[in-house]
């Protein structure tokens, strides 16, 4: 197993545009003799009013389905002999990615970014927050 870890952060709702994230992570892994972990974070809804009405079984099923979907998504790529795993996390997206990278001692996080909108000036997209606060290198990839 490779000592160098790369997190490829993808959003299963944007599979097509995030394909470039996976492709970049594979190329980066090849050049660094690294392992890639494909990560999807289920956004945290803990502080929403509606969350109290969603049965726990349904929340659990979302995670089971996300794991299956992420594994299927990973199977669509030519990994070129790069070792890879998948991981589904739950929480505030940028916080989970940063803490997971720290837990793994990851060297890189590869994350996608769409063109910013006016609301991003006030809220800040996940890619901006990850690149600002991560302790490892961050590669922000735009869809082709």
Structural features, described:
- By secondary structure, this protein is of the alpha/beta class.
- The protein has a single domain (4-141), classed as HUPs (Rossmann fold).
- It is built from 5 helices and 5 strands.
- The protein has a 5-stranded parallel β-sheet, with helices on both faces.
- Strand 2, helix 2 (56-74) and strand 3 (84-91) form a beta-alpha-beta unit.
- The longest helix is centred in the middle third of the chain and has 19 residues, at 56-74.
- The termini are far apart.
Secondary structure topology:
Elements: E1 4-9, H1 15-32, E2 34-43, H2 56-74, E3 84-91, H3 93-104, E4 108-112, H4 118-122, H5 126-133, E5 137-141
Parallel strand pairs: 1-2, 1-4, 2-3, 4-5
Helix pairs in contact: 3-5
């Amino acid at each position: 197993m490779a000592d160098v870890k790369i997190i490829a952060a993808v959003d299963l709702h944007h599979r097509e545009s995030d394909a470039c994230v996976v492709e970049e992570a594979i190329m980066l892994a090849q050049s660094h003799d690294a392992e890639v972990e494909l990560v999807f974070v289920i956004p945290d809804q803990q502080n929403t009013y509606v969350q109290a009405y969603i049965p726990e079984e349904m929340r659990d099923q979302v995670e089971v389905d996300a794991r299956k979907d992420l594994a299927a998504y990973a199977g669509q790529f030519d990994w070129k002999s790069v070792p890879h795993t998948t991981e589904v996390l739950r929480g505030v997206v940028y916080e989970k990615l940063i803490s997971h990278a720290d837990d793994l001692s990851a060297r890189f996080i590869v994350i996608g970014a769409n063109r910013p909108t006016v609301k991003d000036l006030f809220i800040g997209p996940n890619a901006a927050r990850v690149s600002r606060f991560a302790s490892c290198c961050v590669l922000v990839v735009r869809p082709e």
